[in-house]
Design goal:
Largest sheet: 6 strands, antiparallel
Helix content: 55-70%
Length: 663
């Protein structure tokens, strides 16, 4: 067995090494040609510090006045760059300092005549080139604008060698595509696909793609997309290849996985043992057949019309959360403070460690980043639902029950609002789902723990789930989550200034305070505030009590199956914070998975009724402006269903799959 493992690792290492070498050689080959670019003033956006286009009186060309600072963002052709700008002071001679990114490089004395000014830049590792020209503004008597320089056009020449970041992006792309493909196929096909994919990307970029967008974000988003698709495919393959989870055969006796010690961070593993009787506690056979059919009908009749109405009527009125993320990323790249001015609902609220996640999209053109973010979020949501099915799926359950659970949330209003407004909830849900999957299957532990680290960096509230490994003494798991979070923080320090952490700390108290009087806030504090204005503190007391009760429960049941404790924790995490909006309710997919895939028929109906009520809330809340009492009922129904399911699992032989174990 050890020899086979060594051979497998040797094959993987050789295949990956060859793929990286071929990528390096191809990268050097395709970037050998020189490249040139001409950008007239009218082709540049106003955001670079330009006024509207004007016509020269003595020539056909057009020009634009700059503001006090002109920020030219130009693609980097590679190699030594020769940059030429047509400028005029429009006034007596003016001294114009020039800086590259934040580093001063030279200064021009610009006269009133339109002339070409030359600048020779050595090989720059960055892409694109960020050039800044600053000059004191003046305002003529006949023009109220603040004017800087007359800018006609810019030309640059370069090439013959790739930018350093292109080398790094190409190697990282091959590495990421290889490991993503390795989830589905063997090493050699994965290496071939990764090499061909990266080489095609490099060829496109060297042949003209560099004029459109930098390579690094395109490579990053490509790897993210392939990794998510591979993960989704692998989870689907695991489900559909397992006859027990699909219910294709349902023997009255089956194998129970008994707890056994594992080498992985002290985590309990599972081994197959003797066959024993396993009762079916999900109701009689007729109920099992009727349940998914009725659930499917309710999905179509209740959810879809509300989802369509919400996406087409309600969501367009909201501020784009994706726009907030990317605007904050660009502001932080320029050294600004994206947290000011701070207003809940329209300001950036995530810690600086989250900025590397948005960085690739912030460097892409508008039509592209929007489509890619929503597509990747949809795939992430599907992967999360499949991971939850794999985590909580029982051998005795028919495949239609698992499929009904996936369909239930795939057409939920909270998911599609997440996609419509460009929220991060789908990615956060995937991180939480992988964390639960890593608890059930030790081989997924690293993936799951890093997934939770990403979820915490993006949302903070999933940090509550760390109470489970903390109480259970799972030090290895806590270390892996910390490594993931710190790693993202270090990545942020590479591109973004350190003062952002201080800036974030200033808004943290306001984030904890939340906002009570908000019609779309479904937190407990909003209930009291909307019925008795100013009484939002009552909801906070209830929320704190709810979190405290869960903490006491996991301390008392610290030897219980951790995925059950975590499912209850996600329910508490969702409904207890001071600020919960409709799209945040997607996290309730976790406790719903526990109930539908394991609970009695009554518990399943309670969970389905809870989700149905949450869907009904949107039109009632928007059209009638009713207090969100219906959400409170939905929360209570789901809490009832989760507690009943956990009690059934604790008292039934079926609970052997969720066997109590400890150190």
């Amino acid at each position: 067995m050890q020899a086979e493992s060594f051979t497998s690792w040797r094959t993987t290492g050789v295949a990956l090494f060859v793929a990286l070498v071929l990528t390096t050689l191809w990268c050097g080959l395709v970037y050998r040609e020189p490249r040139a670019l001409h950008v007239p003033s009218e082709a540049l956006p106003e955001t670079m510090g330009l006024h509207s286009v004007e016509q020269f009186t003595d020539r056909e060309e057009r020009f634009r006045w700059t503001k006090s600072t002109l920020n030219l963002i130009l693609p980097n052709p590679g190699g030594q760059v020769h940059l030429r700008m047509q400028l005029s002071s429009g006034f007596p001679e003016r001294f114009v300092p020039v800086q590259l990114a934040t580093t001063p490089v030279t200064a021009f004395t610009v006269g009133p005549a339109l002339r070409t000014y030359h600048l020779l830049l050595g090989p720059e590792p960055r892409e694109p080139i960020a050039l800044g020209l600053s000059t004191p503004p003046f305002s003529p008597a006949s023009d109220p604008r603040e004017l800087g320089l007359v800018f006609a056009d810019v030309r640059l020449d370069g090439g013959t060698s790739p930018v350093l970041v292109i080398w790094l992006a190409a190697l990282a792309s091959t590495l990421g595509l290889f490991f993503a493909g390795r989830m589905l196929v063997n090493s050699l096909p994965a290496a071939l696909a990764a090499t061909l994919g990266t080489c095609a990307l490099l060829l496109w970029h060297a042949s003209g793609g560099w004029l459109i967008t930098p390579l690094a974000p395109v490579a990053t988003v490509t790897v993210m997309g392939v990794a998510l698709l591979s993960l989704t495919g692998l989870l689907g393959q695991m489900l559909f290849a397992d006859e027990r989870l699909l219910g294709q055969r349902k023997p009255r006796t089956s194998t129970i996985r008994q707890p056994a010690r594992s080498w992985h961070a002290g985590e309990p593993g599972y081994r197959f043992s003797e066959k024993v009787k396993r009762p079916t506690f999900s109701g009689d056979a007729a109920a099992q057949r009727v349940f998914p059919i009725v659930a499917g009908v309710l999905i179509v009749l209740v959810m879809l019309p509300i989802v369509i109405w919400t996406v087409t009527t309600v969501n367009p009125e909201f501020t784009s959360d994706l726009g907030i993320y990317l605007s904050a990323t660009r502001d932080a790249l320029a050294g600004g403070n994206p947290y000011e001015p701070f207003v809940i609902g329209v300001s950036y609220i995530y810690p600086p460690a989250s900025l590397p996640v948005f960085l690739p999209f912030a460097l892409l053109p508008p039509p592209t980043y929007d489509l890619l973010w929503r597509t990747l979020s949809l795939v992430a949501a599907l992967a999360a639902l499949l991971a939850l099915w794999r985590t909580f799926g029982q051998p005795e359950r028919a495949a239609w029950i698992g499929a009904s659970f996936v369909a239930l949330w795939a057409v939920s209003g909270s998911l599609w609002e997440t996609l419509s407004v460009g929220q991060v909830n789908a990615v956060v849900l995937l991180g939480i789902a992988l964390f639960l999957l890593g608890y059930r299957y030790p081989q997924w532990a690293w993936v799951g723990d890093l997934g939770l680290a990403l979820a915490i960096v993006l949302k903070l509230s999933p940090a509550l789930l760390l109470a489970v490994p903390l109480v259970r003494g799972d030090v290895g798991r806590l270390v892996r989550v910390a490594v993931g979070a710190v790693g993202l923080g270090l990545l942020a320090l590479i591109w973004f200034p350190a003062h952002l952490w201080v800036d974030f700390a200033t808004i943290a108290p306001m984030l904890l305070g939340g906002a009570d009087a908000n019609p779309y806030n479904y937190a407990l504090g909003a209930f009291a505030d909307r019925v008795f204005p100013g009484a939002g503190w009552v909801g906070r007391i209830v929320a704190i009590a709810l979190i405290g009760a869960w903490l006491v429960f996991i301390v008392m049941r610290r030897r219980a199956e951790p995925t059950l404790l975590l499912a209850l924790g996600v329910l508490v995490m969702t409904i207890a914070p001071g600020l919960v909006w409709y799209h945040h309710l997607i996290f309730l997919a976790v406790p719903t998975a526990l109930v539908i895939l394991n609970g009695t028929s009554r518990a399943g109906w309670l969970a389905l009724g809870s989700v149905g009520l949450l869907q009904l809330l949107r039109p009632l809340d928007v059209l009638l402006g009713l207090p969100p009492w219906i959400v409170l009922v939905a929360y209570l129904l789901l809490l009832w269903a989760v507690v009943e399911t956990m009690a059934e699992l604790a008292s039934s032989d079926v609970g052997a799959q969720f066997h109590t174990h400890g150190r």
